[in-house]
Inverse folding.
């Protein structure tokens, strides 16, 4: 069955992911309610999103829904279970998914570093200019102003004989 996802949302009571999709063979809009089971306020949102996306019953419907969107919906559900308002949960999710340029990535553990890298990859893909874009220019040459005298470093002035 070929279906195109139109909207994806969450219902808090009872917890469920709701998908509005269009069946391309019949050209009808339909709604699918996927109950969220065994999810608590201590659950891992990314793991729950992966399990739902890989579930054989829902796999065909969730092919076009990005994993990041499902993670976001599960984080809203977790915030609801913790008793947070929707605004607080959105603010917390925004803090988790933005990269602070002053943050030292060397001090992060492997899981957090992988999360930051995936956020950066997503941002790169979003901002990347492709050949099909209307403002795409193949070979851009930029000259940088040389107003100040360049400072030389010690490592580039030494001769190669010293090694």
């Amino acid at each position: 069955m070929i279906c195109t996802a139109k909207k994806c949302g969450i219902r808090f009571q009872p917890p469920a992911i709701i998908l509005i999709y269009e069946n391309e063979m019949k050209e009808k809009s339909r709604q699918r309610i996927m109950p969220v089971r065994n999810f608590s306020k201590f659950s891992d949102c990314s793991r729950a999103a992966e399990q739902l996306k890989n579930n054989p019953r829902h796999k065909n419907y969730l092919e076009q829904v990005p994993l990041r969107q499902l993670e976001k919906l599960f984080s809203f559900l977790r915030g609801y279970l913790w008793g947070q308002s929707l605004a607080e949960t959105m603010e917390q999710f925004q803090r988790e998914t933005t990269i602070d340029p002053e943050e030292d990535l060397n001090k992060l553990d492997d899981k957090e570093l992988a999360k930051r890298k995936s956020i950066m990859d997503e941002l790169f893909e979003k901002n990347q200019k492709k050949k099909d874009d209307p403002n795409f220019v193949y070979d851009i040459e930029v000259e940088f102003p040389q107003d100040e005298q360049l400072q030389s470093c010690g490592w580039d002035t030494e001769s190669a004989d010293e090694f």
User: Anything to note?
Assistant: The chain has two domains: 3-97, 100-130. The mean pLDDT is 86.
